[in-house]
Amino acid sequence: xxxxxVVGAQWGDEGKAKIxxxxxxxxxxxxxxxxxCNAGHTVVVNNEKYKFHLVPxxxxxxxxxxxxxxxxxxxxxTFLEETTELKNxxxxxxxxxxxxxxxxxxxxxxxxxxxxxxxxxxxxIGTTKKGIGPxxxxxxxxxxxxxxxxxxxxxxxxRLDAILPLKxxxxxxxxxxxTYSKEEMFQYCKKYAEIFKPYVCDExxxxxSSSLKEDKKIxxxxxxxxxxxxxxxxxxxxxxxxxxxxxxxxxxxxxxTHIDNVIGVxxxxxxxxxxxxxMTELLDETGEKIxxxxxxxxxxxxxxxxxxxxxxxxxxxxxxxxGLTEMAITKxxxxxxxxxxxxxxxxRDKRNGKIYNDYPxxxxxxxxxxxVYETLKGWKTDISNAKSLNDLPENARKYLNxxxxxxxxxxxxxSVGADREQTIVLENPFK
Length: 431
Ligand code: IMP
Description:
Blueprint (H helix, E strand, L loop, with lengths): L3 E5 L7 H9 L4 E4 L8 E5 L2 E5 L12 E4 L4 E2 L1 H13 L7 E3 L4 E2 L2 H12 L13 H9 L12 H22 L7 H15 L7 H10 L4 E4 L25 H6 L8 E7 L2 E3 L12 H10 L11 E3 L1 E2 H11 L3 E5 L9 E10 L5 E2 L12 E9 L16 H14 L3 E5 L7 E3 L6
Parallel strand pairs: 1-9, 1-10, 2-5, 2-9, 5-7, 6-8, 10-14, 13-15, 14-18
Antiparallel strand pairs: 3-4, 11-12, 15-16, 15-17, 18-19
The structure holds inosinic acid.
Inosinic acid binds next to α4.
């Protein structure tokens, strides 16, 4: 058994899609287990770009069981758009299935997300406005609608009776926005039922348990990043799901005893979109240089990403809360032209010099802290064609070795460009 979870080990956008795409070739089952269409996963195959939001990128391979599991939230129209585009481009979706237990993002979830963000002023979170928080809030508050509710009229009727009266009061009185009649919601639900019908997998229990019995290789595809985790991220500047490794167990329906490896995908530097603390952020021309060379603009929203140096304090924290067993380092080539590279190995309290080697989870403290850096020499060489560790210049290897030492887990995959081919795989868990 070598079942493997791929998670983002920073604030999302680490290049998970490329790593999952790479491993998917050797997996039998690929499961997307949390988040929704806030995710934007870009995969480049033979110079062709595919953008995924909800569908596991494993669909690009034939005959893999690709499953969007119960821990996800699904916006029907976005799902329709994404699947239609993939079909139009000739991708076979016959093995794509979704869980009847996944929660639906309804029109008012998006309304609420937009209004909340727009009215929060300087306290805004910087969400993707895809209705993620409001959908998860309703799920946890037991006011959510599950995909399976769409196919039983009596049940749907009673769910809408339970949900709508209170929801409409809130929409009208709190948010001052449009309310939804039961008839209107029925019409939406009819449409959603059609959209999801070809994909709903009522036999998912059998499918997953037989996959385990038959020792199939299972790849769990995470979305967002550990630092955006609702429990362990920089709350409240987080998403509303659990991108930590443990999220794969709760979100997929396959318990933790069936998980063997958790790969933390980590950029060779750090980026973040949206608001919230970011200790190694560079607000100068070095940050601008990383953004330009790295093409650091959001896949889902197009927003410029904040950029900064590699933060080993944060990565060590991700090893603990994410259960990481190894790292995949991405975008190493973005650092090709730098004379010097900095790596943060501790935080210092500006008030009294106190050193923090462990990530302080009280973000109110962060305003008093500054990063303590060590400086490494750059390699000033184009590494985008490197095929093995030996092809990397000595200073690039030294940089990677130092990251391993500081973070405390091995690097098993190194990415030196966007294409599938531009990857150095030191160990593939499925081979
Ligand atoms: P939400 O998930 O749309 O509610 O947004 C909450 C926070 O998570 C915001 O800071 C977003 O920018 C961030 N976020 C959500 N999804 C992603 C992602 O896929 N990559 C990077 N950041 C994300």
